[in-house]
Predict the structure.
Amino acid sequence: MNTQHPTERALKALIAVELLKHRKSLAIQLLSVAVVVGGGLLLGLLGTGFAAFALLAVGFAAVLSVPMGIFLDKVEGTMELLTSLPIPDSTLVAGRLIPMATLAVVTAALSAIAAAISLPEQVAISAHWVAVAAFASVWIGATALGSALIAVALRFRASDLMGRVLVIGMIVGWALLSALDRIFGDPLDVLQGILADPRAPWLASIGYVVVCAVTVVGSWFLARDGYRRFRPDPASMER
Amino acid sequence: MKAETPKDSLNSSRPAESGDPVVRLTDFGVRYPDFRVGPLNVALRPGERIALVGANGAGKSTTLRSIAGRMPDYTGTIEFRGEDLRNQLPWARASVGFLPERLLGYGWMSVADHLGFLSNFFPGWDADYTTTLMGRLQLPPKSRVGTLSKGMAVKLSLVAAEAARPPVLILDEPTSGIDPVMRGEILEVIGECAPEGSDRLVLYSSHILEDVEKLADRVLLMADGRIITDESAAALRGVHPDQSLSRILYRHLRRAQTPSHDSTTDDLTRPIPAEGDSE
């Protein structure tokens, strides 16, 4: 007889299925990291451009894989399955965010190490732990926030999302990046300047904690709201 | 308490008038951009096997999903065991087995894994009973969920809905689009799950009137989002002893879809004009 608390049992089942679901994308990410490291070791032959490109690809894969998985949930009907289970929304959200964060941390840490090995000049800080923290916070934040936003967006039709949220997001993102670039100069130069400051480890540590806390708490509430409001698209279903 | 309507008085012949309703809809409604379901007022009692019959878009799936606790955006009240269903969610879902129109699950999982995954969420899940049902329905445990045929997918959904032996079993079009042999198997198992005299409520929708005839002891006929007829199968047969139940239902469905038909005054106990006669 199973003596686990029902919520604990449900949470474990959700986490297990999420990790299993993303096993292929995780494998691809790990392979990409291996390619980055390999590329780094062969920098003399391939040049830094290749390694930088591969590193970017790993980052994009990590950021996009979970939101894409949630979209797949909607398409395949698994989102409807999950929201029809006799579990509270908070358990469902926790069951999604914990494996997301785990995957993001694994990929981010491996990518950061790969970056430190293959691109020491560009990253400028070798294998310093700050690099790991910075990469991890960015990836955790992007993944969790992206997933939460997608969860909220589930109450809209995909066409609405593509037509409004995505376009607005891209325009706003592009505008912000342009503005930052004009105000502060090349982001990489700015980053190197910040990291060269002796106060950088402390600032990075505080920044890491703040970014993680804000994104995790924000994601929690956004995702919970998204799942609570989620319902099948009335236009696509039999009445 | 709502005053009894003329239609209510027709329900006196229902087989399960005794006993408190396990589900009661009071002014239940759902509003779509171009359509409205309800208001529905109906009581469903333990031991009943109720068929929800109606044309596409009549509001059957919306009603079933809402009673199953899978669609909370409705107006009015659904009482489950005497209490507002909204106040009992999400836990009440464990007491309502629900077979949706299409199989919901991870396509990459095996049948056994799918059922194992679901077992984590239902406290009353009976693993031995699940195995028995799988054998009874000849479900291949190692097949991937995403590769199942329509019939096998329905069987899997039925096992998932029934495995915890919930007091209420709700089935949305369980036999549509599948071959006659599988249809027969599925109907047999549904009948075995809730045999006559049991205290379980089975509520199912179907377009196949022969299936309604085989299983139902009460029929709710829906049109334009409303229940236009609520009558026991026995009473219907009694009024039209020369016709099969499916024939009776077919002709009333046709009549309900006639543009000039006033569904608020529909009455299945009224003799049906012969085909070709004006109404």
Observations:
- The interface with chain B takes residues 6, 9-10, 12-13, 17, 21, 76-78, 80-81, 83-89, 231-232, 234-235, 237-239 of chain A (CB under 8 Å).
- Chain A has one domain: 6-233.
